[in-house]
Prior knowledge:
The chain is mainly β. The chain has one helix spanning about 55-65, and strands at about 5-10, 15-20, 25-35, 40-55, 70-80, 90-100. The chain has a 5-stranded mixed beta barrel with strand order 1-3-4-6-5. The termini are far apart.
Amino acid sequence: MVNSVVIVGRVGQDPEMKYFDSGKVRTSFSVAVNRWNPRTKEETTDWFNVEVWDKQAEIVGEWVKKGRLVGVEGRLAVNKWQTPDGEMAERYLIRGTNVRLMGSKKDEN
Length: 109
């Protein structure tokens, strides 16, 4: 079985870095990917939450900014938790293993 995801799109907001007492670093951001919907004959946007860890997280936190075109390689993951009212909640995200800046400086929004 293979769990592999590759997306190319624009960063939705400046990445958010979090440092943990263990020394680990996590950087989170969203990516907007446009696609053509043949049914509606319009372009639509899919949003993906991405998180990267450790050295990659530090690089992303320093270089990736809102509006930049990026390529993200990673795997699909799900975070599950119990809400304060006792319900189970889940959120799908991409655990990025490789984030690449794409385009040129003029492509930035």
